[in-house]
Amino acid sequence: MEMNSKTFEPRIIGFLCNWCSYTGADLAGTSRMKSAPNLRIIRLMCSGRVDPSFILRAFQLGADGILVLGCHPGDCHYQEGNFKALRRVHLLKRILRDFGVDERRLRLEWVSAAEGEKFAKVANEFTEEVRALGPLHLETNVLSQSLGGELETQEVAA
Amino acid sequence: MSKPKLALYWAASCGGCEVTVLDLAEKILDVAGFFDIVFWPCAMDFKYKDVEAMADGTIDLCLFNGAIRNSENESMAHLMRRKAKVLVAFGSCAMDGCIQGLANLTTREEILESSYQQTPSTVNPERTRPLPLVAAPEGDLDIPEFYDSVRTLAQVVPVDYFIPGCPPQSAQVLTVISAIMQGAVLPPVGSVIGAGEKTCCEECGRPRKEKHLKRFYRVWEAETNPEECLLDQGVICMGPATRSGCGALCVKANMPCRGCYGAAPNVIDQGAKMVSAIGSVIDFQDPAEIDSALDQIADPVGTFYRFSVPNSMLQHKQSSA
Amino acid sequence: MRKIVIDPVTRLEGHGKIAIFLNDDGEVANTYFQVPELRGFEQFCVGRPVEEMPRITTRICGVCPEAHHMASVKACDAVFHVEPPPAAKKLRELLYSAFYVGDHTLHFYALGGPDFVVGPDAPASERNILGVVRKVGLEAGQKVIELRKRAQRVVSLIGGKAIHPVTGLPGGMAKSLNTEERDEIVGHTAYFLEFAKFTLGVVDQVVLSNQAYVDMILSDTYTHRLYSMGTVDENNKGNFYDGKIRVVDPDGKEFVKFSPRDYLQVLEERVEPWTYLKFPFLKQVGWKGFVDGKDSGVYRATPLSRLNAADGMATPLAQEQYERMYKTLGGKPVHQTLATHWARVIELVYAAERAAELARDDEILSDKIRTIPTATPSEGVGSVEAPRGTLYHHYVTDERGILQKVNLIVGTTNNHAAIAMSIRKAAQGVIRRGVEITDGVLNRIEMAFRAYDPCFGCATHSLPGKMPLEVEVFDSHGTLLTSRRRGSV
């Protein structure tokens, strides 16, 4: 457990879309740009695939900050998906606020396939912002049952 | 041969789930004829000690309504789990936390402060607060203490089945109990019963169009067209995120669904699902226009999670996050 | 000092606990009536849009959600400074009257009534609806079931759902009635009236013709001279849905008559540390403790108080019965707590007559049932007579109609002090040195509060819970001498 924000290493989850932002991240990698290792990437076909419950689940399971990266407006491979993501993130931030979770822990950015540098910049900046916010330490009851069958135990985020 | 044993218990509840059982009307006599009702505090005088004295697992079916708010609720949850073969979370309080779950968005301290200090009719200059233990002139007095938040039954003990609704509609309750009385094979443990497998929209009957919403209306603001989907008309209706089974009674009375039957099948967080749905149908792309439209949704957390704060993924307001 | 604990209490909605302290002579020194639950509606409703309150506050109580729905929607009318069309008010009052018929029936036959119908000393297993049915006949039981079914049906036709109605809106109602629905309701109201007359018959045959019961009703043990509160129309006749709130003093003279919005000038609430429920009292008289009399601010808001506070009933058969009750009991006002059961049946008759009147009024078919608010919302108070007492909902909102402050004084809360006093006096009357504390003795104490038809779920805006009854007797060293339990927990 981190006591000091200088040594606290935030756990950042990134939901990246296959066509633009994931490719952009890849480019950052192959160009050997330095980007914070705190970010663990989950690739989806489109930012519009990011169900708000994925974001909440990531917080539940220990994420301190969450990035949603998609194609620039007008460039979405599926036309409208990134706009859906934009609206969902805006609305979810209000919900997070009412639940006492700092809405700055969720961020949406547009990153194209060619923007390796932007990807690295966003990853680094966001990591530092979340570091300054401190660990999330979500308080939840331990036992939670998913409907339809198996009992699922989640430990309180460490 | 002895009759199967039935128990009904109410934890932190409004009593509506008891009334819905009474609303079985004359059918309740059939139920009382088939089962040996061994425990039903609302209507009968059986003793707590009688239940404790039973061998574990001898109660065939226990319908447990109400949420877990204090230590007494919790110990009864454990007791009924031990004594019942089949434990059912009956109604929204037991399953999702229900409307009293909105207290999870505030704190115990805020509740005590407002109830005993701030309301305009309360005059309390000494700042007297109810206490778990008080020394009165004649002797000691005690009352149970509350937990800081509301919990669902499944957050305290393993639950076999869930019957949703605030309250579960009597007709659904009858369907479930009749099926059990006729010896039906029970579905897999953990299933939702006494409800449908679709969303409330399925039962609504109003024509739906592809949605392009630019404006939201609160229920007081406009008269709606009873022949058109409410969400199409800009009125937030929880139908898309809510499980079917109630008959869409509210919408048939021209009021939007508020989600009392809990999350739709395969949805874990009802409010998050509604965020997803609303996000899909707002017809703006510019962030500023999006925010203006969202400003017209008066209370997203209290509307999307009206019945399900305790059973949501975040469960309650974080003290500092 | 010896302590006897009764925990919980049976045959009422809610959770309650009684502690009885005995002095060295074995007489009752004091009693404390404790309500151990709280949910916090006044706080967690802050931030909610005010027009959602009629659907949120019903969850204070699943037995009387209609009362909260109506008080709430009237408060919303006041917040939005909007007047509903007459047809909307009639629809609301019709729903409300049907609810009253069902609710008073439930109390008389299943909760308070059994004490009279089977007798206070009957075994516990008989003192419930089944015992009533055995005494009065199976047909009676079937009538009760049928009555409740019809009452719930009327509520759902107007309110959308029977338990937790939904159609009340600021400025009116969401749904009108068509002719088919209205005709069905007319049929139900005819049944209500027949059933009300049947219940009057039960009161006559089983209670009033039994001298022992009449003596118990008139005994000093169950009498308190207190102020009475009730809502009256412009003719000072009782009305459940709307009117001004009138308080008469223990001698029956009008003390104050006020509009709901002025309730803060009349009422204040006290906090005690040994119970979660607060104690309202009359501000202008002042809090003098748990005592009777004109100088004590304690008041009652029960069916009996409502009849005391009114000059009569607005419908003919109810008026006839009102006159009969006062004649039988020696004039107005009546202070014998157990007479509340009789007053409740008279109210049942009024509700049935009123429902029939409203159902036959053609305006009930109108589709002009909404006035859309145009003024900026701010603040408002709505009140109705809940079956258990005057119910106040007070909302303060911002200019968007989002709640900033909520205050609720719920039916049974009005009676909290009086209930505590009734329990103490009953305990002092029946527990004496050398007298064994039997089940019957305890039941006579419970009868003192059961007459109020308390709903502590409502009262603490918490959840009613189980009401088992536990009595423990401790000696002065705190050693448990004996304990007896009824019900669960």
Helix count, DSSP H or I runs of 4 or more residues of chain C: 17
H/E element string of chain B? Answer: EHHEHEEHEHHEEEEHHHHHH
What is the CATH topology descriptor of the largest domain in chain B? Rossmann fold
Q: What's the CATH class label of the domain at 83-221 and 336-372 in chain C?
A: Mainly Alpha
Fourth-level CATH superfamily of the largest domain in chain B: NADH:ubiquinone oxidoreductase-like, 20kDa subunit
- Assign a percent range to the helix content of chain B: 25-40%
Query: How far is the first residue's CA from the last residue's CA of chain C?
Result: 26 Å
Instruction: Give the mean pLDDT of chain B.
Output: 91
Number of strands of chain B: 9
Which CATH architecture of the domain at 83-221 and 336-372 in chain C is right?
A: Orthogonal Bundle
The quaternary structure here is heterotrimer
Query: Mean of the pLDDT scores of chain C?
Result: 87
Shape annotation of chain B = globular
SS content category of chain B: alpha/beta
Structural class of chain C: alpha+beta
Strand order of the largest sheet of chain C: 3-2-1-15-16
Report on this model:
The complex is a heterotrimer of chains A (158), B (321) and C (489). Chain A has 158 residues and is of the alpha/beta class. Helices cover 35% and strands 18% of the residues of chain A. Chain A contains 4 helices and 6 strands; from the N terminus they run E-H-E-H-E-H-E-H-E-E. In chain A, helix 1 crosses helix 4. The longest helix of chain A has 18 residues. Chain C contains 17 helices and 16 strands. In chain C, the strands form 5 sheets. A 5-stranded antiparallel β-sheet of chain C has the order 3-2-1-15-16, covered by helices on one side. Chain C starts with a strand and ends with a strand. Classes of the chains: A alpha/beta (158), B alpha/beta (321), C alpha+beta (489). Chains in contact: A-B, B-C. At the B-C interface, helix 1, helix 3, helix 6 and helix 9 of B face strand 2, strand 3, helix 1, helix 7 and strand 9 of C.
